[in-house]
Specification:
The chain is α+β, with helices and mostly antiparallel strands and 181 residues long. It has 2 domains: 72 residues, no CATH class; 99 residues, Cupredoxins -  blue copper proteins (Immunoglobulin-like), CATH 2.60.40.420. The chain contains 4 helices and 7 strands; from the N terminus they run αβαββαββββα. It has a 4-stranded antiparallel β-sheet with strand order 4-3-6-7. Strands 1-2-5 form a 3-stranded mixed β-sheet, with no helix packed on it. α1 runs antiparallel to α4. The chain is elongated, with a radius of gyration of 23 Å. Keywords: Copper, Glycoprotein, Metal-binding, Signal. Pfam families: Cu_bind_like (PF02298). It comes from Helianthus annuus (Common sunflower).
Length: 181
């Protein structure tokens, strides 16, 4: 029995660590997609950013030719006026990453002459998200599958329900716990 409980605690620890890592490690976005960080001809970075939902933990990857571009993180004034005199940080490798650590606006520009004015600038808006991460200890499996208005069942997925993973884990833990008793 002691060995079984130790195995349970080890499994629980590994699963919790996986959940925490998933919550910390977000999506990775290549800025400008296949075009990278450059002067876009057919689009703009505001169009690119508006098609994304950025969250804390996401990573922005800037791919560019370092002899022709750079990336400066600036404040809102620097972004609007393309002012390169007071950057918060400058990236120059051509393969730079920026991890979003908090909600808010993040502003990036290229400091090469006329590039920012030509549209090589990015405003990333990260909304404050709040999730209810509580689960009931004696969850009923049927209560985890929402009913649609037509009466047919639809399955909750991580994309549609942020608590899906935690609910699934509570079922696994309940099943393991019952086996231990």
């Amino acid at each position: 029995m002691l060995k079984t409980r130790m195995m349970f605690h080890l499994m629980l620890s590994m699963i919790i660590e996986g959940v925490v890592m998933k919550a910390v490690i977000g999506e990775v976005y290549s800025v400008g997609d296949s075009q990278g960080w450059t002067i876009l001809v057919d689009s703009s970075y505001s169009t690119w950013a508006s098609s994304k939902s950025f969250r804390v933990g996401d990573t922005l990857l800037f791919h560019y030719n370092p002899t022709a571009h750079d990336v400066m993180q600036v404040n809102q004034h620097g972004f609007r006026s393309c002012n390169i005199t007071t950057p918060w940080k400058t990236y120059k490798t051509g393969n730079d990453s920026f991890i979003i650590k908090a909600p808010g606006h993040y502003y990036f520009i290229c400091s090469f002459p006329s590039h920012c004015e030509a549209g090589q600038k990015l405003d990333v808006r990260v909304l404050k998200m709040s999730y209810n991460l509580t689960t009931t200890p004696r969850a009923n499996v049927s209560s985890l599958v929402p009913m649609s208005t037509t009466g047919s069942r639809s399955v909750a997925t991580p994309a549609t329900d942020p608590n899906h993973l935690l609910r699934s884990l509570s079922i696994v833990f309940a099943a393991i716990w019952v086996d231990l008793l």
